[in-house]
Amino acid sequence: MVGARHGAQERRRDREFEAFTAGAAGRLLHAATLLTGDPAEGERLLVAALARTYADWFRMRGDDPYDRTRQELTTRFAHRAWRYRRPRGGLLDRLPPRERLVLVLRLYEGLPEEQAAAQLGLPAERLRTLCLRAVAAMRSRA
Amino acid sequence: MSGAVSGPLPDRKEAEVRRMLTGAHPPVPADLAARAANRGHRLLRRRRLLRLALCAVLLAAAVAAGMWVAARWPTPPSPPAPLGSWGLAPR
Q: Which of B16, B20, B46 should we substitute to test contact with A (largest number of A Cβ atoms within 10 Å)?
């Protein structure tokens, strides 16, 4: 009885997760690749973040799975930022990890300033400064 | 915006960089979702095992505490010898 219900729930999780990934993976993978610079590394980062989303699927209580995955992605990247300090190629090659995070959240994902600042644990003014600096660096690069 | 800003306004600059960022998306590997689900599944199993281990430890601790209390409990003194008639102890 309990086993059957558990099995049905697991199947539902698989089904819903698959549908979510089919829609969101492209955009998330692009964001992850922008952050890491290296496509294979970006894929690894995204798989780890998505695994967490899968495990927490029934615990989100109305939270958007996309937002949760993006949050997990940025947190993981921020924790391992030392690994990405040296340039690895990619569009944001010359920016330090924190500026890459700011650009991806603010400009690629279009998050409002306060929300991006909260997610990165920075004051809003600091975020604005980082964003301006990163934008200037990108434009001088072009 | 203040007139001190030279060149395009920050919004225009941001839009320019935004366009640079939204380039071609890399192709998504076909097995990406399956790999993530597998890893998520392992994560779930590990969490369940951890919860089970925690429950077992708590249960063992509760049993041990119960046994310790039972062992230390002072045995009640044996009931006093019954009194004889007139409230005097029988000889």
A: B20
Q: Shortest CB distance from B26 goes to which of A30, A50, A55?
A: A30
**Option in A48, A52, A142 nearest B20 (CB):** A142
List the structure tokens of B28. 């998504």
Q: What pTM, to 2 d.p., does this model score?
A: 0.80
Which pLDDT score is estimated for A110? Answer: 92
The CATH classification number of A2-141 equals 1.20.140.160
* Residues spanned by the domain of B49: 32-70
Q: So what's the ipTM on this one?
A: 0.84
- As a whole number of angstroms, the distance between CA A29 and CA B31 comes to 13
Minimal-distance CA residue of chain B relative to A48: B36
CB contact under 8 A, A18 and B33: yes
**B2 assigned to some structural domain:** no
From chain A, the residues in CB contact with B50 under 8 A are: none
What residues contact residue A65 under an 8 Å CB cut-off, 6+ apart? Answer: A20, A24, A53, A57
